[in-house]
Amino acid sequence: MTAVKMGSSIRPCLLLLALVVLVHGAARSRAANNRFPDDFLFGAATAAYQVEGGWNEDGKGENIWDHMLHEHPDYSKDHQNGDVADDSYHRYKEDVRILKEMGMNHYRFSISWARIMPTGEANNINQAGIDYYNNLINELLDNGILPVVTMYHWDLPQWLQDLGGWTNPIMADYFEDYARVLYENFGDRVKWWITFNEPLSFVSGYAHAGPFTQAPAISKPGVGDYLATHHLLIAHARAYHLYDEQYRTKQQGKVTITLNTDWHEPLTNSTEDIAAADRARQFSFGMFAHPIFSTEGDYPAIVRELVDKKSKAEGRTRSRLPVFSKEMVEYIRGTYDYFGLNYYSSKLVTSGVTGENPSRERDAEVVISIDPSWPSSPVTSWLQVVPWGFRKLITWVHENYNAPAILITENGYSDDGSLEDTDRINYFKSHFTELLKAVYEDGANVIGHTAWSVIDNMEWTSGYTEKFGVYYVNFTDPARPRIPKASSQFLKEIIQTREIPQD
Ligand code: PNW
Description:
TIM Barrel; 3-stranded mixed β-sheet; globular
């Protein structure tokens, strides 16, 4: 009796205690899952050609985007170019002010090679260009914002393009000279370097010509883009080793490359589709990542095998994809201090034959599609909103390349420029959520996120028709005022609370 009595009075107490512990635990793990690590970096990005303008001011040389869009205005959708863009060349203090307003930890911007070396050569330095970037860097540091600097965001000096651009192996020498000028002039204050932005995107300028193609718009698919790939990988390694040998001890910074890809999901779970999705990853991403970030180095085996096989069948004396010597494989392998990763969207993959003959698309033997149920950007045809693809890509990089420190160097959404940009807020929110799942559930080491973009800007061959900014810019107003969209307030709150709001 007594025991029963005692039991019946103790049991509710124990139950209550258990409940309290449970609820507390759930709240804690919920908090942990939507809370960013304490040292997580929040930033936003732009690129020189897309925002600076001042295309021929104070001694700047012509680059391949100036050249292409001046020669062929119809290559961009609205026949516009980057001659003025956001006028950041004169209004960079405005950019820094709004970054500070949002509480950003870092600003990722790029240096226009032709602004500081008009022909691309190191014997011809334009001091006004050096001054511009010194002013921008100092303004950022005065406001407590870390500069993350991309050396090459697609704007090659035209003088170097006239020598063949990235199809010419000599480019590695010129790029090393350029990197030296950057380390010498800015390395005392810049600690985060990115050699190249999205090689996958810009090598396509050596594969396709015509409206809406990348500069320099040269039509040599399956040859020009592979030569460019080969030479930029060597150029990247040259810039990395130069830093290692001559600057690292004194400047104590980090150097890497930024790679992008859509996440490639197999169309079905058939063995064939799974293999096709892997080929798509290797041809779009592994081709650049494997030589630098893998344990073995060199191009992925499947890429080597397929391109060699097809080149032979085409009766060529050598593969369309150049071969690295053993020494060069070793020279390129491991040339990173962190991983720069851009993610926007995902695609479905099955096996099949598409693309010109020859071409990267055809070499990969894949057919790419989208799920029609995925929400899409109203203005950017390739941008479907697939947040889970973000987590899968991060985790895939984590698992395939030795768990590197990953800085998300771009991620963002485009629309027609509305100030109440709820879809952009939802995009960021869902992508932050998946990013934290990659961190807490998959163990990925993601050290920061960089929103693309700070301000609406020149979206390459889409001109000003696709707006990625968290600040609106009216491109018919000569003063180019930066006007906050709702998403800038959203990012500001995330940065302040370091949590994803759960409402
Ligand atoms: C990136 N795709 O380009 C660039 O780094 C930025 O300069 C650009 O403004 C931004 O993303 C938005 O487009 C991409 O077709 C271009 O998947 C095309 C694709 C992805 C990124």
